[in-house]
Amino acid sequence: MHIKSIPMWVGSSDNYAYLVVDDKSKDAVIVDPANPEEVAPVLKDQIDSGKINLTAIVNTHQLQVIGGKDCEAVTKTPGHKESFKIGQGITVTALHTPCHTQDSICWYMEDGDDRVVFTGDTLFIGGCGRFFEGTPEEMHKALNSVLASLPDDTKVYPGHEYTKANCKFLTTVLQNEAVKKLQSYAENNRETQGRFTIGDEKGYNVFMKVEDPTVQKATGKTDPVDVMGRLREMKNNM
Questions:
Q1: Are 117 and 157 in contact (CB under 8 A)?
Q2: What's residue 63's pLDDT?
């Protein structure tokens, strides 16, 4: 499995699209190509040079066609935990994670010992998406039940590069060694996608540590759903 990151709107919303290629067959999908003007030239170069056989667009949520049920021109919405293949080697599993939008889907991909998850606007490195169409209970389930159940060595590919800003918030809630290491990496590297895992997130991402006494003390809450809601409020108000 080969993954090529395509940064979009750098300096403003700092989105990512991802080109995922099966090494054996050259079959490929493009994940979240939200800005065609920046993505299309990359795809054209890859196709014209014979490096890929583009088979599908895979969206994590409402974008402009495999994806959530509200995606424009969607042709298939896999059920929760339903799987399909990219080429010969990559198995893709849909993980429904409604909250940021109600049609949010994270895509877990396996190829041999390689495991990755494309989390859109559900999970960021050191953070999570706003609850535009959902509730704290839904985000708690998405992060701490659905995504937390993935193998710890699963690499995380989010929809935005928000890590520096997320670290500023993390340090107001939790100051453990994991947070310090993430902050150091973010300060010295412009891109953080694919560099951290689900296991890493459990160490520093306060939205995945809602039962941690330090996080609970910072929020003044003890119920995990209440902690999630308060954390989001605190982050929104920064």
A1: yes
A2: 47
User: Any idea of the CA torsion for 155, 199, 159, 135, to the nearest 10 degrees?
Assistant: 150
3 state DSSP class of 153: coil
Strands (E), 38-134: 53-58, 83-86, 90-96, 105-111, 114-120, 123-124, 127-128
**DSSP structural state of residue 217:** H
Using the predicted structure, report yes or no on whether residue 64 has a pLDDT greater than 50.
Answer: no
Distance in angstroms (rounded) separating the CA atoms of residues 163 and 161: 6
Residue 70 has pLDDT above 80, yes or no: no
Pairing type for strands 123-124 and 114-120 reads unpaired
pTM of full prediction above 0.70 = yes
pLDDT tens-digit profile of 102-112?
999 999 999 99
Closest C-alpha to 78, from 44, 109, 54, 122: 109
Q: Count CB atoms within 10 A of the CB of residue 170.
A: 25
The gap from C-alpha 85 to its chain's centroid, in whole angstroms, comes to: 20
Tell me the torsion sign for CA atoms 235, 145, 100, 17.
Answer: positive
Per the structure block, which two tokens stand in for 86? 């990219």
Three-state secondary structure call for residue 123? strand
